[in-house]
Design brief:
Pfam families: Polysacc_synt_3. By secondary structure, the chain is an all-alpha fold. The chain contains 17 helices and no strands.
């Protein structure tokens, strides 16, 4: 079921994280270290603002949308959503401008301030509408809302940088124009007359569900982004820019891999909760984890293997050394973060125990803050990524172990072991491949890795694959 839904959303699931991955690479050629530090501090804070001020309502809306629809209460739902998103957008704008003035550029021009504000407003609106589109299986609308803004916006910004030179105004303008274009293309005329009168009971229920998620969002953001601010404050904005390239590539690659399978997972789980109950959703969650690992493990380990060949080809020469130091730890942190967001958090979402997410995110955020003081001083910018990876590994490993030992979940152990075996063989084979030129070596390593892993997985999962083919054939 998840595989079918994933294939429907695959183009948009690839394009959105791909744009973030490409942005880091392209900026190394068209911008300097300071501009990269400048822009990534703004976009990183936008992620925090979205997570704190919009996602609490968005996750509640996704969790209960089926209830509103079943009871013919969509009019009230949309009226309340309109008000909540408007208020949340206003708070986002205020927070984004404070971040700009206090932590990024205390002499920011009015134009930059306006662009930062517009970016916050359109991001909030488009992300919420994309979440609802995914529930309604509106694939084209979902794809437009999630892909056009970051992808088209990136290339507009890069074109402006190429034409007019290194200035943070141009990437910001590109992103704003991209989000505005997505809003126009995905505009949907409301079939119901909306008012500005939210349902107070719905808001109270959403706050009860979502308030812990606001704190959890801040802590989850700190886990990944605090080292960036710590480096900018204790070292320099230029060092933060160097760090941003390495950590950005690692995290974005992990996101690119996991986004191929995870966006369809949560709507499917919420649908199962309403139609078949929590036990069915928990059972599906274990299959979701397996699919995530099947894609994530070979992707991350394969990239680690080819990194010495790949990085000098991807980024401008002056960024290579710093990227090689930071990126391995960022890949590890991104992989663990993917398991947290695509598996562990989903377990607590479907059980409505969002306070648990807040507790473990808080513990890991405190660990990152403490570790940064030691690791950045000891290892430089590499220490920032190390602090994130160590905190995530300890925290997520402990929570998953507790869920297993308390029999709250039953992991697909045999299938996970098969996947780990295939990944290990792939790694050993790829590591032995060499060639005269970097491009040839890169192509050979990718070919050997893809072929060996695919062949082993087809062999070990042949019965499962045959069953899926028969099922689809009989359904057709």
């Amino acid at each position: 079921m998840l595989i079918s839904n994933t294939l429907k959303y695959l183009p948009s699931q690839v394009l959105a994280p791909l744009s973030q991955f490409l942005s880091i690479i392209l900026w190394t050629y068209f911008a300097d270290e300071k501009l990269i530090g400048y822009i990534t501090l703004i976009t990183a804070f936008q992620e925090l603002a979205m997570a704190m001020f919009v996602n609490w309502w968005m996750h509640y809306a996704m969790r209960e949308y089926g209830h509103f629809k079943q009871h013919n209460q969509l009019t009230s739902f949309w009226q309340t959503s309109r008000c909540v998103i408007a208020v949340s957008s206003a708070i986002m704008v205020t927070a984004a401008l404070l971040n700009l003035v206090l932590f990024v550029d205390n002499a920011a021009s009015p134009t930059v301030c306006v662009l930062v504000a517009l970016y916050a407003v359109f991001r909030a609106r488009n992300n919420f509408n994309a979440a609802i589109a995914s529930l309604e299986q509106q694939i084209l609308r979902y794809s437009i809302l999630t892909s056009i803004g970051p992808f088209v916006g990136l290339f507009i910004g890069v074109a402006l940088l190429y034409q007019f030179g290194s200035d943070p105004l141009y990437p910001l303008l590109g992103y704003v124009l991209g989000e505005m274009l997505a809003t126009v293309l995905a505009h949907q005329r409301q079939q119901i007359r909306l008012s500005w009168q939210p349902d107070s009971q719905t808001v109270k229920q959403a706050l009860h569900y979502g308030l812990p998620m606001i704190g959890a969002a801040l802590c989850a953001w700190l886990i990944l982004q605090y080292p960036r601010y710590f480096i900018a404050g204790t070292l320099s904005l230029e060092q933060a820019g160097l760090y941003a390239v390495g950590v950005g590539l690692g995290l974005r690659i992990a996101s690119l891999i996991t986004m191929m399978v995870t966006p369809a997972a949560l709507p499917l789980l919420f649908k199962l909760v309403h139609e078949q109950g929590q036990q069915a959703a928990v059972a599906q969650l274990q299959q979701n984890l397996l699919l995530l690992l099947v894609v994530l493990l070979p992707g991350l380990l394969g990239l680690y293997t080819i990194m010495p060949v790949l990085v000098p080809v991807l980024v401008e020469q002056r960024f290579v050394e710093a990227t090689m130091q930071v990126m391995p730890w960022a890949l590890l942190a991104g992989g663990i973060e993917a398991i947290k967001n695509g598996y562990l958090n989903h377990y607590f979402f479907i059980h409505k125990k969002t306070a648990s997410i807040f507790i473990y995110d808080t513990a890991m955020a405190i660990a990152v803050v403490g570790l940064c003081f030691f690791m950045v001083n000891l290892f430089g910018i590499q220490g920032g990524a190390m602090a994130t990876a160590v905190a995530l590994a300890a925290g997520i490993g402990g929570i998953v172990l507790w869920l297993v030992l308390s029999a709250r979940v039953c992991l697909p152990y045999i299938n996970i072991l098969k996947t780990v075996f295939a990944v290990t063989v792939m790694f050993l084979l790829v590591d032995k491949v060499s060639a005269a030129t970097a491009v040839t070596a890169l192509a050979l390593k990718i070919f050997v890795g893809a072929l060996s892993y695919t062949a082993l997985m087809l062999l070990m999962f042949r019965q499962d694959i045959s069953g899926l083919i028969r099922l689809r054939h009989s359904a057709g």
